Amino acid sequence: MLESHQYLRQFSIKPSVQRSAVMNFLLKNRIHPTIDEIYLALSPTMPTLSKTTVYNTLDLFVERGAVRALAIDEKNARYDVDISAHAHFLCRSCGSIRDIFDLKPNMFHIPDTTSFKIDAVEISYFGTCEKCKGN
Q1: How many domains does the chain have?
Q2: Which of 54, 80, 100, 106 is most buried when burial is the number of CB atoms within 10 A of its CB?
Q3: pLDDT by residue (tens digit) across 32-53?
Q4: Residue 66's domain spans which residues?
Q5: What's the pLDDT tens digit per position in 81-112?
Q6: Same domain, 75 and 28
Q7: Do 74 and 93 reside in the same domain of the chain?
């Protein structure tokens, strides 16, 4: 696993204590967290950390392409450190989000016949996960 400082430098982001802590959390917790989840996880060991700092840090990460902001959750933005082409699944019962990698190779390809300038593609699936399906 990449160290957070190395990862940040790949995207021309100057590592700070807060930026490194947020990136380290994202790299170690691939749960597509919300700002609140990141803040609650980090604040006990970083008492000076604010939600605004987490928000601004994630904005910078998204702007530089180090992290993707997901619009899959109607209530909260979710963040994904895996920037490779993949889809997401949201369980409507428990709210967990899972990555889906085994899609058709051309799923993310935009036909050359369009005149659109595409800078992002987001494919989302919704349903019930295997844990909740039995309940």
Answers
A1: 2
A2: 54
A3: 999 999 999 999 999 999 999 9
A4: 4-80
A5: 999 889 999 999 999 999 998 877 676 676 77
A6: yes
A7: no
